[in-house]
Amino acid sequence: MTSGRCPTCGAELPENAPQGLCPKCLLVGVAAPTQAGPTSEQRPVPPALEAVRAAFPQLEILELIGQGGMGAVFKARQPKLNRFVALKILPESMARDPTFAERLAREGQLLARLTHPNVVTVHDFGSANGFFYLLMEYVDGVNLRQAMQAGRFTAEQALAIVPMICEALQYAHDEGVLHRDIKPENILLDTKGRVKLVDFGIAKLAGRDEPYALGSNSGAPADIALTQSGSALGTPSYMAPEQCSSPSTVDQRADIYSLGVVFYEMLTGELPTGNFARPSSRTPMDPRVDDVVLRAMARQREHRYRTATEVRTCVESITASQTSTFKPRPDIPAAAHVYPIPICRTLKNALTLGLGLLFVLMAVELRFLPSHLYRQISGVLHGDWLQALIALVGFAGIGWLTLQIWRRRAWFTEPFRPLFHPTVGSGPGLTGPGDSTWDPWPPLAWMGVIGGLAVNAIWMLCGSVLMVAQLMRTPQDFPHSAGMKLLFFVDVVLSPVPLLILLAAILVRREVRRPGMPIPPGSAPALMSRVSLLTVAFALVTSLPSAIRFLASGAMVFTSVSYGEFVVVLALALVTRSRIWRAIALAILVVVLATSVKHLSYFLLYAPWEQWPAEWAHPLSQSTAMFIDVGGQLLGLLCCATGLVALLSRGARTAFGLPPRGSRRSDPSVARASA
Amino acid sequence: MTHLFLTTQWTRVLAARGDTPESRQALSELCAAYYGPVVAFVSRSTRNEEQACDLAHEFFATILSRQGLDGADPQRGRFRTYLLGAVKHFLANQRAAASCEKRGAQAVHEPIMPGTDTSPGREIPDPGALPADELFDREWALNVLDRALAVLEHDAVSAGTGSQFQSLKPWLTGDRPDLAQAEAARMLGMSEGAVRVAIYRLRRRFRELVKSEIGQTVDRMTTVDEELRHLIEVLSHPQSPGR
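Output (structure tokens, whole complex):
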């Protein structure tokens, strides 16, 4: 026999402990109150098995499997179909209500329409021999309450279950059905680990639309409330505040509140009563989970998530960043609904085309990278040892930086996850009925653009290193004044600013993903926003030297603006939802457009290639070079035009996972659900 | 679940006052099941293993051959208290008989073997040891659990899920911070949800078994919970270092 200490209670194990288990903990487990235990005497008495058998001759009634305020559930078999079903007998007190039959007929048809892999299907309903019943799909498993008793959920397990609940809820909400009684008892887990929601709309069927009596957990006929008041069903704990005060106006956000409470309970094992603690302070977990839970449970429904899909997207982005890859979760069943990006098709296509072209353009711009770098590197290496040393140290630093960023790639790209994810956005009003499939091209185009930006930034860093190395030894190569040299030096060193701006955009993005939540001063997000502001200011200041330099050398200012910078500012404008950034992005866009026009006019004016400015000379044949350059400029024009459309459009916000402006006011599914 | 507690073996024994053949059969089964605690109690009282076994056998022989249950009060009848009372009676009678002058008064009949401690004063009781009554109850509780676990294991093996039982039984003691359900799921080739369902069902069955096991030894359903509380209390006391 094993001896030692019990890992649960810490007591010493006796030598003859049964099967090496702590006897005290075993007995405590036996004595623990259970939901279905024989000790609960306050429950309403279920109908006798014989009476039910007599009333349903077409079914083989096997056993009573559950008993709650909303009736008794029997396991039964349909001999003809040879399948198990669950027969729910609604409480007698409910049936006494003369309008009940009519209400059941109306609601039953609505419930029977719900077919979803995460919703328990209603096969039939009606009345037989004085019993009002619902015939439902039989789920072989346990409910979430029982599953929680079988062991606390880890954060990962809870994060895996919540999206499935969200899917079921979103489906029902889309069908115009509110659940109104989300609680662990109504969330079933089958033996394969799938989630099934049961009892949709039963609360409404029970007449819970009437204002609630204080302290009772059911607004249904008074005797239910009385018999149930002492039981541990605890539905009021899961009810949204507005569900108690004005039940007739509840919408889908009441279900989201209840979902938040269930989520909290799964994570902490407790109900969020009184001045409750944040889940991450109870068990170690990603602090972003707190934000999701707290926002879902906001007292004011305006501050909650509007749809279950939003909750799901947030939860899945947390899960995805923890697994550090962007592949879709393998456990989502194939039959799960894939929600389309709800923006108008033309705009989506234009955006995709523009982003794709931008990607191509960047690739074209990068075509000189190898030969250009080779020439510069060989120049530096053939200089003297100091130049070479500086260059080598600089390259080592860049390599190290790249490695660090690559290691943290999940963290860096996580804020953009909605861009890569098929289930982004659910802004009502923009989804057309024809939008049935998800289009993979916009995320791909975005990935290309971000990848291109990254390569661009590395290239710029390398260029800075080489320039610094050269400047250290050959200042006489620059026939400018000392002040000009200093400006040039500063510009060269600081030219990789786009990378910093990209970082700032990511940080800001992190920040703005929590709208409606106050940010405590001194917290990490507050620090991040300060850093991002500093970075932006830094970028603005450092762009001044190059502007002055170009003005002094007689060139035009806008030649210093590149497409890469435009993309960065575009991203900033979209993620910060700031009008200032939109204005800056628009200004840069106009400048880039002008540059493209200027370049194209060069081609047209100086048609003989020999007259081209020397700086355009490159190792390719002239005709190829012209083809590439003209093509590049045309692509640039196209992408700028689509970017302009995207920036000015309303639907673009949704494409980036942001709710459209003013969308909170109207919610068409709400009206239908409460009708 | 309630039907398990309607007629317990012990109520049958009590109702018949131990007179019918069925009730005698039930009593003998009960005694067989709770042999361990009696031996532990007797050996603590007499401080002699060999003699303890003899005495315990003799005790069971007496109790099973006795006509009727003269010592049991059917109103507050628990088999545990009845058995403890009976064994105390029996030991007291034995002691009285043994201290008769003509049988050598207080002399202890002891075989002298290698390792037998013959130094004087060895009867001084171990101050850290449990009182014999408490030891009896503790052994009783362990016995109940042993039997329930054995049934659970037997059921699992005959259903072909023996390895599942072996992997999941640690969770019968509650949440296990030292073990991961995910690990168990991987080993058993099940999903985590399925493991959760299995643990829930295992616990439910164990709960039923322990309660029905206890139910066999009490006279009314309602006392099952009281008895359970008593056994938990007994197990909560710190053990003696000697055991």
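Chain B touches chain A through 46 residues (CB under 8 Å).
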